[in-house]
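Usage

Read records sequentially. Each one opens with the input sequence:
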Amino acid sequence: MRPDEFAQQISQAGQVPALVGEVRRGKALNLVLDAAKVTDASGNEVDVAKINAPDVEETDGVGVDSHGRTPEDEHYGHKHD
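and closes with the structure output:
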């Protein structure tokens, strides 16, 4: 679905306020996580930015990725199986 089609459907369904609320909630959570010192059960600091990093790998867009997928595969470049 194209972004303009998505926006039109959200608007027609009257869901713009809900969507705006979700965006604001996500941004607020990111602000809190950026300011927080997160530790695991052993007291070791956890890199939250690393946890939130996109689950993709660097690819050249031509050859196969680390899972043997070609650029035509919809999961090309994703780190998951």
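Summary fields computed downstream for this record:
- Residues 16-35 form the longest helix (20 residues).
- The two ends are 24 Å apart (CA to CA).
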